[in-house]
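User: For documentation purposes, I need each entry recorded in a consistent format: the amino acid sequence on its own, followed directly by the corresponding structure tokens. There are two entries in this batch. Please keep commentary to a minimum and don't merge the entries.

Assistant: Recorded as requested. Entry 1:
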Amino acid sequence: MNYTVNIIDKSWLTHNVMLLVFEKPQGFTHNIGQAIELTLNSRQFRNQFAPFTLVGSPEEKHLRLIIKVYPKHKGLTEALSKAKISDSLLITDAWDSYVYKGKGTFIAAGSGITPFLPMFWDLKNKNVIENHQLIYANRMTKDIILKDELSLLFKEHYYNILSEEQSAIYDYGRIDYAYLVSKIRVFDQYFYVCGPDAFMESVKKDLIRGGAKEDNIQTGY
């Protein structure tokens, strides 16, 4: 089922990532970790739906998405970045993307952090975020989404690695087998992995090599 909703607010979290807030349709429900498909309600984009994971709590009055904008693609995300307050969107019912199964390690690249954010906030509200860890890959410091908040949430269990910028406070390189082994003490746990397809495939392969069970590794969409 599709719903027509209006944009309520927009704000920028980084130079190319925005927070989009829009109406919650009457009767619409969702769970933490679920996604929707969304597009602009316009002649050009009406049939160009794309998937995004909802980042708000199911109890919130409105719906929220964090969207990475790709201006060079001249597509939906660029159009959404230019949309005005009260512009109309089309959204689908929510469907399962990630499901929290238990304590473990979250591994994300870039905007792949977004499906995990509602889980983080829910774990914090339940006072059970301790002993979870986050490994987060980005190109540069300016690309890190909610950098300070993630640091406060995970403290010493937060590892950020940059591939195109050397920093005194972050690791440098890419998430590969050697890096995972250096950060993960026990592979008999749950893993939640999100990022580009090649990233997820590579990380999953390296986790299994390290001793993780394939059934304990979740990847996106």
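Entry 2:
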Amino acid sequence: MALDDLATLVAPREIIICEGNPAGQVAGKNAEHDAKIYSTIFAEEMPDVTFISAGSASQVSGDFFGLAAALPKVASGMIVTRLIDRDDHAPGDVTSYEEQGIKVLCRRHIEAYLYDDEILTALCESVGKSEIAPELM
């Protein structure tokens, strides 16, 4: 009982399992790339959410590592969400994923959001280089 109480106090409120090479899988292969991006984007808005990269879309949707099944047992009340890229999934497949509680991006992959003109302009402005935004785009 005491460990369960402690886990509830220190565990994040929500874990979002996303695509990407898990940490330690292949050195130098963008380990946890998507998780790092999501964590950076949502750090202020969702500080009690942890993003974990867990492989390909099929590995995430199929809970290959058993994370979606195991994590709520560690801390009661923890929410676990699986998130995959849209990629080339047919509309029927997307509907099927969503019916299983798997979130699917509206765009092909996370990079499609990052390379949006609005984001690139904001990046240039944030580092004092507004003048290079048109060239970057």
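Summary note for entry 2:
The mean pLDDT is 88.
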